[in-house]
């Protein structure tokens, strides 16, 4: 979430006319931040700390910057190279220096998790979400926000 300003959760809340007196927390896991935000929201409600929580995710590979190591302290002599933060911080496993997909397949070997099981879990999750939205009726539960092709425009679809 580099280059979009501090606390994107606060920015999103303000853009949605949620008062600045309402707490806003940004979760930055690079992947699954939205899911973690929903898990955290569930905990807040179950613990009684909150009655209503707005949770969502906003990861953007398009906004990943390039990094010049040492530039902040001042480069003195010689060439400086650019590192793609998308590679360094998102798509390449920090432990094995292979793609995250390859790392996942590698790390689940010897467990009950396989690609077919993961796909089935994801499909079931979508089915449950769709059923929950249908049970709750129109205008309650969820709103999908889709980026405008990386141009900073948002399309809000209300269900």
Care to describe what's here?
This protein is mainly alpha-helical and 159 residues long. It contains five helices and four strands. The strands form two sheets. The chain has a two-stranded antiparallel sheet with strand order 1-2. Strands 3-4 form a two-stranded antiparallel ribbon. It is flat and about 65 Å long. The model is unreliable at 144-159 (pLDDT under 50).
Tally of helical segments: 5
In N-to-C order, the SSE pattern is HHEEHHHEE
How many distinct beta strands?
Answer: 4
Instruction: Kindly estimate the percentage of residues that lie in beta strands according to DSSP.
Output: 5-15%
Determine the N-to-C terminus distance.
Answer: 27 Å
Largest sheet: 2 strands, antiparallel
- Tell me the helix content: 25-40%
**What is the 3D form?**
flat
- Mean pLDDT across residues: 80
Which sequence of strands runs across the widest sheet? 1-2
Query: What structural category do the secondary elements indicate?
Result: mainly alpha
Contiguous low-pLDDT stretches (5 residues minimum) are 144-159
Taking all Cα atoms into account, the compactness measure Rg is 20 Å
Topology overview:
Blueprint: H1 8-15, H2 33-47, E1 66-67, E2 83-84, H3 85-91, H4 100-107, H5 115-136, E3 143-147, E4 154-158
Antiparallel strand pairs: 1-2, 3-4
